[in-house]
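Input/output pair, single chain:
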Amino acid sequence: MKTNFLLTIVLLLLIGNASFAQDRIIHGRVFTFDSIPLVKASIEVKSTKQVVYSDTLGNFSVGCAMEDQLKVSAKGFTTVKFKTDEKVKIAIINLKLKPGDKNREIAIGYGYVRDADKLNAVATLNNKDLDFSQYSNMYELIRGRFAGVQIVNGEIIIRGTNSINSSSAALIVLDGVPVDNSVLNSLPPIQVKSINVLKDGSAAIYGSRGANGVVIIETKKGIDN
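Output:
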């Protein structure tokens, strides 16, 4: 009788802990280059070790504690740890493709990116592949490093994009924030970690602002560092 009572108490405690560990469902989306959905990315909940995978649109839903951590990963990409709390309503997670053509092939080969043309429309330059400190300014660094990209009157012009406004300049996104082209005048190349140029459908997430293409710049002092 005593043994049954103790087993009942243990069972209730286990059920209580499980309920506490999954006291809400959080929804999210997984991207790369801010706009390309990642399919079959792994999302692991720290508190329960439960693993789910993103769908064909990069969407996922998973049970977790009110304050928890999601570990999001995919081969060829840098793993991200996303903290959740009561203020987080939806988790938008951007996985960065590791430098090198091999990782780009892995991303396509493993089916993480369904539209290979979108991924191939992204040009990447990383400070691990090139010494940025040898350049005196950002325009000198960007000029000649990306096919179809020109510097005209202090603006970055990406050929092959169609403008729907008065300007043909690409949108500049610095550490996740859209900025004016003039910011490049005061940004030392030595502080830059990576530069990604998005064109065609890859820039669709930015709407009309990205119609002329997007230049994503991440600095060494960015929010992920």
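The chain has a mean pLDDT of 82. The two ends are 58 Å apart (CA to CA).
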